[in-house]
Amino acid sequence: MSTETSPWEEHFGSRENQNKAAQLGMWIFLGSEVLLFTNLFVGYGVYRYYYPDIFVEGSKHLEAGWATVQTLLLVTSSLFVALAVHYIRQGRQFLTALVLLVGMGMGLGFLGIKGWEYWKHWTEGALPGEYYRLEELPVRGGSLFFTLYFLLTGLHAVHMLVALGLLGWLVWGAVSGKYTAEYHIPVEVGGLYWHLVDVFWLFIYPLLYLVE
Amino acid sequence: MAKKKSTWGYVGVWVVLVVLTVVTWVLGTKLKLGPYSLPASMGIAVVKTVLVAMFFMHLVEQRGTRRVVLPVSALFLGLLLGLSLLEAMTRIQMARPNGINEELEPKRPATTRPVGH
């Protein structure tokens, strides 16, 4: 694709319309993502209702302190992504790329902690479904807790990977001068995705790590 | 169009988010709230979500359909979760997973059970 072509499409009628269409499209996509996670939250709700004590015990097996660090990392990365939108609206391309890179670094830190946690669960046998071999918790309920744990954090981690790729693409676009104060729709809607992934974690964190 | 806005508003929102995260952690690990811990932690998560959506996601700037999509998806989350839980809570024993040997009355959480049970 030639970089000479204008990002503005004639058929929207006006640049404002194109902006609004992109925003609406992204918000609808985010709404569908909420409903995707809803499935897991409903499963979590029903099984926590049936096995309240085991969910408390299972939660004690997780690293609440590290999860708090992860939450702080994500919340801070969201600040930097919000700043990226703020800077590109003023046409400051270098600053935009810089704060996006800082946000990505924090996202990678989050995934690093997650990977270490997964490795720990692997060694102690706190695995989903039939692979469950953790002796401290009964198989019934305990295996369900860890199945939900891996589904919720796993789906979230996959979203993090996609969002990291997206931010990387935005960094490249900002550095190569594609985005200006006039045209920066991808930075706006790409940022929305990052924030939504952050929001999912805000709920996953107390639901899995702070059960009592 | 590109008026010079300060970044301090974003930093202010971030400070509130960090404080709320630490409060969630203290409530969940140090102070034992028992039955109130779930509503408390969920309430804080909702407040954090509203802050992120309104200011980091600039939902305050959006109008009309662009503004209602996310709240509507949250409403459907609430409906699906609420109705599914209601169904689970009012099941009789036969329809529940094996091995939960309890009385043949609708199952309710301890917090909503009448005193004396």
TrEMBL record, chain A:
Listed Gene3D superfamilies: Cytochrome c oxidase, subunit III, four-helix bundle (1.20.120.80)
Span of domain Heme-copper oxidase subunit III family profile: 20-212
Entry GO CC: plasma membrane
Source species, domain of life: Bacteria
Membrane topology: Multi-pass membrane protein
GO biological process, any: aerobic electron transport chain
InterPro entries tied to this protein: Cyt_c/ubiquinol_Oxase_su3, Cyt_c_oxidase-like_su3, Cyt_c_oxidase_su3-like_sf, Cyt_c_oxidase_su3_a-hlx
Gene Ontology MF: a single term: cytochrome-c oxidase activity
Main location, first listed in the record: membrane
Any one Pfam family match given in the protein's UniProt record, by short name: COX3
Transmembrane segments: 24-47, 67-88, 94-113, 148-172, 192-211
SUPFAM superfamilies the UniProt entry points to: Cytochrome c oxidase subunit III-like
Keywords: Membrane, Transmembrane, Transmembrane helix
Compartment(s) of residence: Cell membrane; Membrane
Similarity comment: Belongs to the cytochrome c oxidase subunit 3 family.
Protein name, UniProt field: Cytochrome C oxidase subunit III
